[in-house]
Amino acid sequence: MSTVRELFLSSVKNFPDRTAIVEDNKRVSYRELGSMVDSFSSFLISKGINKGDTVAILLPNSIEFVIAFFSIASLGAVSVPVNTAFKKEEIAFYINHCSANLVITQEKLKPIAMEAVSDKNSSLLVVKGANPEWVFTTAENISLPEISIEPNDEAIYLYSTGSTGKPKRVSRTHLNLVALADNHTETAGWTEEDKILFAVPISHTYGFGNFISSIKIGGLIVVLDVFNRNEVLDILEEEFITVFPAVPVMLDVLAKTYIAEPKDLSSLKLVISAGAPLSERIFHSFFEKYGIYPRQLYGSSETGVISINLGDDIENTFNSVGRHVRNVEVKILGEDGREAGVDEVGEITVKSPSMTRGYFGLPEETKKVFRDGYYFTGDLGRIDPEGFIYIVGRKKFFINISGNKVDPSEVENFLIRHPKVKEAVVLGITDSDGYERVKAVLVVDKGVSKKEILESCKDEIAEFKIPRIIEFRDELPRSPTGKVLREELK
Amino acid sequence: MNIEKRVKKVLIKNALKDIDSKELHLDSPLIEYGVGLDSVATLELVVALEEEFQIRIDESEITPETFESIKSISSHISQRI
Fold it and tell me: CB-CB: which of A229, A256, A260 is closest to B51?
């Protein structure tokens, strides 16, 4: 098995009558899913989509997202999942940057998508909502033309947030994705009996890695378009969910959610926490409420899943992201480039069959972080004698909001466009609950209010990028050379 | 402590950590302090209110009108307890 199409067809063939996806009251079996994918693939061909074309998927977690992804992959075209939390200019950036031939979206997002594609050579296709332009069917006897898809053909473009002002495009091949699914599921021991709830977005690398792994093993996936804690708790119980990938803030919210009657979550065997560090407080409070410890997973857009903590002694290793998954190598390198010893802190570097070859159009940046077959994560960490990896800091400059990475310079560039903002510095601060928050320090014209600044952000940048804290200053502290002293602004 | 004072306490502790409590009045529009702009932050506030008042608040109840001010939140909660 070396292509996404083969991975998908294997589950359709082996588990035709098992439920593949559940969304609200809709349940789709693998047989039905196979038929819907072939039918939609055929429609995409009629829309002029061919091997090598790029198709953006601007959809929330949904049956339509799943069908769109596997249909695009079946044609040898490249999917570009776009976060539905993004606003017009952000969406336009992704569509433009990947030169999307087509944008598949939902009715609710059509106005914003139309604006985003208005001056581009992309067409729009609405597949979800009250008046879709294509209705997914389970038509029989669809025969797709022979399309030769090679393992090293590109299958998906993901975007990695850095400190360069714009997200960096990461290409992952069919073989990369198949390897990711193989290594993750074999390490975690998933089978077709597993039922996985997706409240994290599958458009994001973390959700996507777990999603493709779930399909690979013929598991049942339940998709939620937004995180609704009461609905999550109901689904965990009613669908006998076995695996729940989450981010720490979700676990925190669930642990604090008032429930009148205790929930029976005895089916749940793996609660995954990733995207941001899991605090001791959340680790314990989630366990106290639901009787299962969350376990940390580590991954990146560049590599896919790197490690997961499946250790027996979880109470004492809760702050570890675990051992590397199968076929993935992790080395800690010191400043001098030599491999660090046990428990010695250095930069975490990764070699994985699921990792990308570099950043599109950024040879210098690529050269910096992809060296000697390894990806230099920018995370600082150590490995203990049992092989457990601990992340202790990071070299990269970004703000982590519940797993969403925010590039401060991108927010600064946006804020400075406000006519009354003269200077803007954006930084991450950690609050008393251990969460990172976006803080903006602004030098503004007299009379401007925080409300005015916040309202200017509201429909223009994704909500997780909007500063939670705004501070006005008469001037910014600077070094003798004119550099802004960011530490003094925290 | 009355409901409004308890709501204000929860707000200051969970959502408005950088402001002086004296500047926050019962009618102050919370949107001016960023409350309601970020769904995750709003959710954190809701669970804190649930914890304080031992009630279940459904996502459907989280509307801009309900979260307009301390007064509107308090009025919503008083109907529930």
Answer: A256
Backbone phi and psi for residue A43, each to the nearest 5 degrees, phi listed first: -65, -40
Chain A residues with at least one Cβ partner in B under 8 Å: 226-231, 249, 252-253, 256-260, 401-402, 431-432, 449-451, 454-455, 457-458, 463-464, 466-471
A344: helix, strand or coil: coil
Q: Is B34 on the interface with A (CB under 8 A)?
A: yes
Q: Which tokens in the block code for residue B6? A: 């308890």
- Please report the DSSP string for A418-484 in residue order: STTEEEEEEEEEE-TTS-EEEEEEEEE-TT--HHHHHHHHHTTS-GGGS-SEEEE-SS--B-TTS-B
CA dist A405 and A274 (Å) reads 12
Q: Which residues are registered as beta bridge partners of A19?
A: A29
Name every residue whose Cβ is closer than 8 Å to that of residue A313 and which is 6 or more positions away in sequence.
none
Q: Are A270 and A243 in contact (CB under 8 A)?
A: yes
Q: How far is CA A16 from CA A35, A141, A221, A355, B30, in A?
A: 11, 16, 15, 31, 52
Could you please report the per-residue DSSP string of A209-267?
HHHHHHHHTT-EEEE-SS--HHHHHHHHHHTT--EEEE-HHHHHHHHHS--SS----TT
Q: Name the H helices within A262-350.
A: 280-290, 314-317
pLDDT of residue B17: 64
User: Residue B32 is nearest to which of A230, A450, A467, comparing CB atoms?
Assistant: A450
Residue A468, min C-alpha distance to chain B (Å):
7
pLDDT band at residue A38, thresholds of 50, 70 and 90?
very high
pLDDT tens, position by position, A56-93: 999 999 999 999 999 999 999 999 999 998 998 899 99
Q: Which two tokens stand for residue A377?
A: 């994560």
| Pairwise CA distance, residues A85 & A462, whole Å | 6
In the prediction, which pLDDT does A162 show? Answer: 66
- Terminal-to-terminal C-alpha distance of chain A: 50
Name the residue among A226, A258, A464 with its Cβ closest to that of B56. Answer: A258
A415 has a pLDDT exceeding 70: yes
Q: Which candidate, A148, A132, A161, places its Cα nearest to that of A67?
A: A132
Other CB atoms within a 10 A radius of the CB of residue B44 amount to 19
At residue A11, the pLDDT reads: 98
Q: Which residues of A touch B33 (CB under 8 A)?
A: 450
Give the residue from B16, B24, B38 with the most A CB atoms within 10 Å of its CB, the best one to mutate: B38
Q: Which residue has the tokens 């599109």?
A: A360
pLDDT at residue A433, as a whole number = 75
Nearest CA-CA partner of A353 in A174, A154, A119, A170: A174
Q: How confident is the model at residue A164 (pLDDT cuts 50, 70, 90)?
A: low
State the pLDDT at residue A161: 81
